[in-house]
Structures are given as structure tokens and as C-alpha cells.
Amino acid sequence: MRALSAQGHKIYFLVSPQGRIVLREELRISLSPGGELSGQNKEQLLGKPDYSNLVSLGCSNMEAEIASGTAAAQGMIVVPCSMGALARIARGISSNLIERAADVMLKERRPLICCPRETPLNIIHLRNMLHLAQAGAQILPCMPAFYHHPQNLEDLADFIAGRILDGLGLDHKLFSPWQAPDNKQP
Ligand SMILES: Cc1cc2nc3c(=O)[nH]c(=O)nc-3n(C[C@H](O)[C@H](O)[C@H](O)COP(=O)(O)O)c2cc1C
Q1: With a 6 A CB cut-off, is 24 part of the ligand 1 pocket?
Q2: Where along the chain do the CATH 3.40.50.1950 domains lie?
Q3: Is 21 in the pocket of ligand 1 (CB under 6 A)?
């Protein structure tokens, strides 16, 4: 989100009720019960006081513009994507705005990137991922690389964020791409 915001992209932020718990437990960011962001939340997420390009929507708000293919959203990232959400998106079950917006991406042939991080995977998870990939989504598991010798957790997270931006066809400097040993800088 920070990289997208730095490039001036408008971001619609949606979080499921369970995602709200994950945000609280993992990032110590507490949202209102409806999942909508306060100004303080926006500042925490973007790491800067200017959050004018971050739009927060409740995930039960099925009247939001991104529920329709006529909206101009150019792509969507579901990160982290729980196995429950992945299953529902793979089967076209639009029970909330996250799933409906993902469904819209698929029907409009726009990029949908789903980032699971479950491990190990059962055969239901694997089948749903195949189904979703065949429907046009990119399955981008949160699996960091180590060739760039990450020094901290931020470096690992930046690698995944960079791969997501790659998936959207956007430039970034979040990590250095792999170079063949002959081309490496000394
Ligand atoms: C701190 C925390 C982390 C979690 N991480 C994951 C995860 O990485 N992958 C996953 O599939 N479920 C994870 N879960 C479980 C999901 O939150 C749970 O399956 C939930 O029902 C998914 O809701 P959703 O389908 O609305 O995303 C986690 C739960 C908690 C509390």
C-alpha cells in the first residue's frame, strides 16, 4: 500500500471481520468493528500523514462503486488471502464486497492477485487455487526469496510487496532482481 500510494495510485481498502483480528494481532492496528479506517489507522498503514488517496470501505457495503464492473478499479490484491476467502472467490460466491470486487476483476479480465500464506495445504486448498488460477487470477503465495540476503522482516515483506507490484505491471525498487552471477556488481 505504501508503494502504491507513493506512486499516486488511489487505493480502496477493504478488510473482513477476521482480517481485522489479523491486523490487530500482527500489526497492532485496531480498526472500528465495521472495519473502516480512522485517520490514525490510515496514517499507520501508509506511514505518512497524507492519506488522501486511501479510501476505506466497509466490506458489507455492496453498494460501493467497486461492486460494479463499470467502476474504474484497475486491479485488486487480496493479501493475505485466507483459504476461506480464496475458496469463495474461486467458486463465485460474493458474500461480501471483497469477494464481489474480486469477482468483478475476473469478469472484466482485470488483474486479481491472491496471496495465500497457509501452510501446509490440503487438497481442497490446492484444488481451489487451481480453479482460481484457471479463472484468470494470479496466485502469489507469500513466499519470500533469500538470494537478496534480507536483513530484517521488512526486507522479507518488501520482497512480497515487490512481487505483487510486478504482478500489476508496476515499477518499484522494493528489492533488486536476481542477476546471473556473471552480471553481478562486484
Ligand atoms: C492472527 C491470525 C492469522 C491468520 N492467518 C491466516 C492465514 O495466513 N491464512 C489463512 O488461511 N487463515 C489465517 N487465519 C485464519 C483466518 O482468519 C480464518 O480462517 C478466517 O475465517 C478467514 O476469514 P476470511 O475468509 O474472511 O478471510 C488467521 C487467523 C488469525 C487470528
Answers
A1: no
A2: 73-173
A3: yes
Tell me what pLDDT residue 184 has: 67
Could you identify the atom of ligand 1 that is nearest to the CA of residue 142? 8
Q: Is 79 in the pocket of ligand 1 (CB under 6 A)?
A: no
Does the global pTM surpass 0.70? yes
List of the chain residues with pLDDT < 70: 183-186
Containing 149, the helix (H) or strand (E) segment is none
73-173 placed in CATH 3.40.50.1820 = no
pLDDT digits 0-9 by tens, 120-137: 999 999 999 999 999 999
Our answer on whether the CB atom of 16 is closer than 6 Å to any ligand 1 atom is yes
Q: Are 100 and 140 in contact (CB under 8 A)?
A: no
